[in-house]
Amino acid sequence: MLGKFFSSSRRSFDSLSEQEVLALAISSEEDDARIYRAYAQRLRPDYPQSAKVFEEMADVENTHRSMLIEMHRKRFGEVIPLIRRDHVRGFLERKPDWLRDNLSLESIRVEAESMEQEAHRFYLAAAGRSTDASTRKLLGDLALMEQGHEEAARHLEQEHLPAEAREQENEASQRQFVLTYVQPGLAGLMDGSVSTLAPIFAAAFATQDTWQTFLVGLSAAVGAGISMGFTEAAHDDGKISGRGSPVKRGLASGIMTAVGGLGHALPYLIPHFWTATAVAVAVVFVELWAIAFIQNKYMDTPFLRAAFQVVLGGSLVLAAGILIGQG
Fold it and tell me: pTM surpassing 0.70?
């Protein structure tokens, strides 16, 4: 009974009349135009050239919507049936605006192109399944319109987003990614990896109890993660520094801090002390080299200098923890 209820809540595309297919196309054009205008509004402060692309793409969608409405008026009259994507099984759905807020510039470009490609494929497939000549022609025309939208999008991008402007916007997007995610995450990873070394290995060599050592490591990692996360989120709201959302930065810093500490705490789930310690030491050096790699890749720090600073510092803290534990 429950399955029957859900299966009947949305109609199949094949059950739609020609008028309903046209109404569906009209509502789809309206939705896509709103999506493109939302993209334009979001991108305008930081990426004005890309914003122009999406503004004009929205204008193209509205032009096609007007053409479809005129076609409906000629064939079926003034009253357009209320039918949308979410009323039809198998039809392409668009994410609401709040699920697009965290998309990067390049992700927005890719999704916009995907919207046009998917709509084109849908109409083309629907036309191939239709046995009614007029409906088949209508669906084929809609498929050609969507293909035209994709070509128009590429044309608009070439017009408003030449190579130099695109490169500048990509660089700005990359800088924002580094400021919002990489820098706080790297600081957290360094803090979690290095600051927890001494208490974990001190506890390990003082007790030689793997379970107690794991509990010490777990508490140190989680505590440091919470502390770093709140500190990062609280000390800078991002409005003046331009570092982005404090919540995003706090999560990046807190999660990576906890990950850094847990990396060499988890091996102590192994009951044999020396095996667990050997694995933990190996994990520590992997973490330190990973930090050096991230510094080199995103922060333009020479790899050898980053490796020397991080590995040397981490090794000193590790040695201090072992010596304190044996004292």
Answer: no
